Amino acid sequence: MRKRPIATNDPHIQALARIVGEQAILYRKEDLMAYDCDGFTVHRHLPRAVVFPNSTEQVAAVVKYCHEHDLPFLARGAGTGLSGGAIPLNGEVVISLTRMKRLLHVDLENRRAVVEPGFVNLKLTNSVAHRGYYYAPDPSSQYCCTIGGNVAENAGGAHCLKYGVTTNHILGLEVVLPNGEVIEIGGNGVPDPPGYDLLGLLTGSEGTLGIVTKITVRLLKNPEAKQTVLAYFDEVEDASQTVSDIISAGIVPAALEMMDQTAIEAVEAAAFPVGHPKDIAALLLIEVDGISAGIDEQINDILTICRRHHVREVKVAQSEEERARWWANRKTGFGAMGAISPDYLVQDGVIPRSRLPEVLREIADISRKYGLRIANIFHAGDGNLHPLVLFDASKPGETERALAAGSECLKACAAVGGSITGEHGVGIEKKEEMRFIFTDEEILAQTAIRDVFNPKNLLNAGKLFPTPGRCVETKMPSTVK
Ligand SMILES: Cc1cc2nc3c(=O)[nH]c(=O)nc-3n(C[C@H](O)[C@H](O)[C@H](O)COP(=O)(O)OP(=O)(O)OC[C@H]3O[C@@H](n4cnc5c(N)ncnc54)[C@H](O)[C@@H]3O)c2cc1C
């Protein structure tokens, strides 16, 4: 962090520095450049300043100041978001929560923990694993993304098929509202707390309704046993049909992941190769967990279904080390694209599982139409597709082609009754695509809710809903794009 004394005449920077301390604010261009985008690198905008509060009181004071002086502002966790949610489109004051990273309380008797928003996802499981517990939502970015960012995006992960996404594991929140007031929401485990379900509303609101400063999460007991299967297929259709049949057979795997040939080429060229054959069309990584008694039976059923669909090779992990290698290979899948392409765009559509083969065929057609390779790595069990459009931003027109191809993939998902996002959020990236699934009236109903919490629309404006003038959104302050 910067050690130089404040050297600017900007009265807002000086006022913010008085709140968080001179060592906890960035405002020089060279320092701000690291905050001009998140994991969605297509758009870049410099913030006005980045502040690093270390308490709810400091967050509230910064927010109150911005509110009173009409300064746009937004929250930022680790900046791993893939839809541009943390990009300071309007020269926002970025409120980085990375200094608020304490594990405040662990209550194993009631299976819960309280964390600050900057606490990194994987550290939670690592903190309680020795006592036989874990935190279930496991985005592939879990080694660096924050729980505050997970709440804002309602993050998912490989093991969310059986255990549910972030919203199913959040019991309570402390939130700084856009005017600087602090509220607590949630029933801390009460099954049906009175009043509106604000916890459900805030979770997944993409940082547009408030800034989360404290989170009570559910902890789960480690499953007694788990087994992991790796299955290689010569035809994508066979792999897709296997996914469908496993779920139809009443088996609910903890995770059911799929990678196609291009994705396999990338992961084998990256940091954690495991020796997948490069000529297969698709692989499935399937994990079942629970009490020891039923696991062998479930594995046998899964092996039978794989064989019924002409699996080329199928194997069960023989050790925890082998299982961990398979997962490391899968979880670094997005980053692995860097091994085969200068740039890539991650899409995040959802489809009914039964439509998997036809949508994958359509994505292949889109790839041919735009002359761009598209890899597919995805949570097949819950129909959450991640087409990765590979492109080279240094080639004229290629970024625009990649964006158009990505948008068409989402249209294909929406057309079969699916959705434009399963876990990465809408952000900037998919705000126009909201029209694929919502009518104007439905979007207006949502912006009306936002306006109750965020009436000046200073908090994270220009995200989540279609651009003013191009659709229904009308309420934008003059300072905001
Ligand atoms: C390699 C890779 C793999 C990924 N895999 C997955 C995956 O499997 N599943 C998945 O769901 N996502 C995945 N993601 C996307 C991303 O990691 C998640 O969206 C994550 O939840 C973002 O957390 P963050 O701390 O980085 O948040 P940021 O990117 O900093 O912010 C994301 C949004 O949350 C808001 N926000 C952040 N903190 C707060 C807060 N305290 N209060 C209110 N709003 C806040 C921001 O304003 C922004 O709108 C992946 C990303 C990468 C780069």
From TrEMBL:
Residues annotated as domain FAD-binding PCMH-type: 43-222
Cofactor entry: FAD
Pfam family, one: FAD_binding_4
Keyword Manganese: no
GO molecular function: FAD binding; oxidoreductase activity
Classification via InterPro entries: FAD-bd_oxidored_4_C, FAD-bd_PCMH, FAD-bd_PCMH-like_sf, FAD-bd_PCMH_sub1, FAD-bd_PCMH_sub2, FAD-linked_Oxase-like_C, FAD-linked_OxidoTrans_Type4, Oxid_FAD_bind_N
Record keywords: FAD, Flavoprotein, Oxidoreductase
Cross-referenced Gene3D superfamilies: 3.30.465.10, 3.30.70.2190, 3.30.70.2740, Uridine Diphospho-n-acetylenolpyruvylglucosamine Reductase, domain 2, Vanillyl-alcohol Oxidase, Chain A, domain 4
Record protein name field: Glycolate oxidase subunit
Source superkingdom: Bacteria
